[in-house]
Amino acid sequence: MPSRPKRQCARPGCRELTTESYCEKHKVQHVRQVEQQRGTAAQRGYDHKWRKTRIGFLRKHPLCVRCLAVDKLTPATVVDHIIPHKGNKELFWQRDNWQALCKACHDVKTATEDGGFGNG
Q1: Are 79 and 59 in contact (CB under 8 A)?
Q2: Closest to 82 (Cα-Cα) out of 64, 62, 98, 104
Q3: Which residue has the higher pLDDT, 23 or 68?
Q4: Nearest to residue 44, comparing CAs of 104, 92, 90?
Q5: Burial level of 4, CB count in 10 A (0-12/13-18/19+)?
Q6: Does 23 lie in the same domain as 52?
Q7: Which of 35, 40, 43, 77 is found 20 to 30 A from 87 (Cα to Cα)?
Q8: 24 shares its domain with 77
Q9: What are the pLDDT digits (tens) for 4-37?
Q10: Structural domain containing residue 83
Q11: Residue 106 counted as domain residue
Q12: DSSP 83-106
């Protein structure tokens, strides 16, 4: 299978050619910058209180709702915010905005919302 054609790194001023968006040098810098802007899990609200609440929710809702919809029994491991809260604390804690998902279903949902895997 032919490889993808190389193009210029997306970092302004960089002349390196790559098959990715960023060359190796700037890929690391880009990821670090995105992570800093995003904040830590605790800064985004996923702290001790959330972890404790999450465990209780998953005890009450042990199966993935998306898998159940297609008659598949899969343990839920993620409490998903149906409507992404994007930092809104009120929406973050609104239990009717939560659903139990398995990791695979959560990854697909998140990638779809974010425009694809690796796009942020």
Answers
A1: no
A2: 98
A3: 68
A4: 92
A5: exposed
A6: no
A7: 77
A8: no
A9: 788 888 888 888 888 888 888 887 776 667 656 6
A10: 48-114
A11: yes
A12: S--TT-HHHHT-GGGEEEE-HHHH
